[in-house]
Amino acid sequence: MPLGASITYGEGSSDGNGYRQYLRDLLTEDGHIVDYVGTRSHGTMGDNDVEGWPGLRIDQLAAKAEASVPAYLPNLVLIDAGTVNCLQDAGPDHAVDRMLELINYIRGASSRVSVVLSTLLVSDNKNNETDDCARKVNDQFRSLVLDQLALSRKVVLADMDGPGGPEVDALVDTMRPGDGDAGFEKMAAVWFDSIRDAASRGWLEAPQVLPSSPGVNSTGRN
């Protein structure tokens, strides 16, 4: 389940797929069976389900997750959220507190889940207050993941603000990667490495079977 705001939804990409098609290709080439889940559909790709909500803060995304996570019981959730908190002056402490609450909820709602948490994209040449907030959020997200690992919880980091993420000059604003779709492709590579990290720890389990209902197959997913 890709969970987040505009980047997750695919805004700014030429086809609306964002990083999702690139990531799906990497995972299938690596031998994984992939089925994105979410209450929304966006992009030209066939498997275009997503839990992407442009413009929402972490606490608002948590409300969406409370509906979608129990419905789909994903075995893997990719979270990219927090920039909107900075844009709305909610502050870094508010962001990390809400993120911990969101992760704890997801872990409790889907027993086989692993969580990959992304750091935020930061541009040096944009709104300084927003960028300063994003850097502080990133530091706190990194610490949050280390704390979760110390507690033997299945949470890993996807460091988009690291060497493998989109280049600073490839950002069209403080919310989305630019440079055509190259920025989204770089994001997919970072997600992929983090998912492989989770797999190497033996965390990835088959998703739970859901009760039969119209429009779903035997695994309970589209």
Automatic annotation (TrEMBL):
GO molecular function: phosphatidylcholine lysophospholipase activity
Protein name per the record: SGNH hydrolase-type esterase domain-containing protein
Residue span(s) of domain SGNH hydrolase-type esterase: 3-174
Gene3D superfamilies reported for this sequence: SGNH hydrolase
Organism: Sodiomyces alkalinus (strain CBS 110278 / VKM F-3762 / F11) (Alkaliphilic filamentous fungus)
PANTHER family assigned: SGNH HYDROLASE-TYPE ESTERASE DOMAIN-CONTAINING PROTEIN-RELATED, THIOESTERASE 1/PROTEASE 1/LYSOPHOSPHOLIPASE L1
Source organism superkingdom: Eukaryota
